[in-house]
C-alpha cells in the first residue's frame, strides 16, 4: 500500500506528536511525519486543486511521487514510489502535509472518473522546507452517447464500436471512450466525448470476409447525454452471393500474390461493406462467400516485399444474390 500524508497544516502553538496516523479512504495507511528537533514541521504543504473550466472538481484522485526525470505526463508507478494518493474534497482541493523538501510529480493520471477529459493533468514542482506550494490541474467535462446496436428487430451483440473526431481539441489522455457492446441487449456507451467538435460513432459487424459499417455523427455544445441506435441491415442467405477472384498479368510473367479491397456503399448512405481479401498465389483463384449483394468497387495491388511490384486499375463488379460471380484482376507489372 502507498503511504499518504493527510495531516492538516499545524496551527500556531498547537503541539503535535511525532507520528501522524493518516487514514486514507479505503486504504488505512500509517505515514510518518517529517519533523525538526524543535518539533516544528521540517516539510512543506502541497495544496493541489483540480479545476474543471473554473469550477472545483471533487472526487479526483491525485498522486504525489518523487520526480525522477522525464515528462510528468509519462510518470507511472514504475518510475518512483508515490508518497501519497488523495481524492479532492468538496472544494476541489487535496492537501499533502509534511512533504519533505525535494522535486515532485503531481498528477491525476489519465484514469479520470465519469466524463471528465484530462487537460493539464500532471506537473512537477520543487518544495522547500516549511514553505507551502500550490498547484492547479485541469479537466474539462465531456458528453456521453448511450447506444443500442440492432440488426432488423433484433439486438446486434457482436458489433465493434469505434470513434473518430477530426476537429476535437487534443488530449494526451484518452477521449471518446467506448464500452464493449452487450452481447444480449446490444447496448453500449461512448463517454468523454469532446464538446464543440464533430464526433463519429461507428459500428462494425462481421459478415463473410469483411464488415458492415454503420455510423452516426454528433456535435455537442454542452455536456449532455444522448441516446442513439446503430441500425444494421437484416441480411439473410438470399441477400448474399459468392465471389471467385483470380489474378493474371498483362504479360508472360506471373505476378506474386497480393490483396484486393472490396467496397460497397449503400445508395442512401445508410451502411457500407468493406473487405480486404487475398488474390493470386500458388492456390490459384480464391473463393469468398457471404458478400452482400450489390455493386462493388475493387482495387488490387501487390503486397510490400513482392518480387515483382504490380497494381491494377480501380474497377467495378456486381455480386448477385444466391449466385457466384467470377472476376479476374488484371495485374500490370512494373519494371
Topology readout:
Elements: E1 19-20, E2 31-32, E3 44-52, E4 55-56, E5 61-66, E6 84-87, E7 93-99, E8 102-107, E9 116-118, E10 122-127, E11 133-141, E12 143-151, E13 154-155, E14 160-164, E15 177-178, E16 187-193, E17 198-207, E18 210-219, E19 225-232, E20 240-249, E21 258-265, E22 272-279, E23 286-292, E24 294-302, E25 310-311, E26 315-319, E27 324-333
Parallel strand pairs: 3-11, 12-19, 20-27
Antiparallel strand pairs: 1-2, 3-4, 3-7, 5-6, 5-8, 8-10, 9-11, 12-13, 12-16, 14-17, 15-16, 17-18, 18-22, 20-23, 21-22, 21-24, 24-26, 25-27
Describe the structure.
The protein has 335 residues and is mostly beta strands. It folds into 3 domains: 19-140, Immunoglobulins (Immunoglobulin-like, Sandwich); 143-232, Immunoglobulin-like (Sandwich); 237-333, Carboxypeptidase-like, regulatory domain (Immunoglobulin-like). It has strands at residues 19-20, 31-32, 44-52, 55-56, 61-66, 84-87, 93-99, 102-107, 116-118, 122-127, 133-141, 143-151, 154-155, 160-164, 177-178, 187-193, 198-207, 210-219, 225-232, 240-249, 258-265, 272-279, 286-292, 294-302, 310-311, 315-319, 324-333. The protein has a 7-stranded antiparallel beta sheet with strand order 14-17-18-22-21-24-26, with no helix packed on it. The protein starts with 18 loop residues before the first strand and ends with a strand.
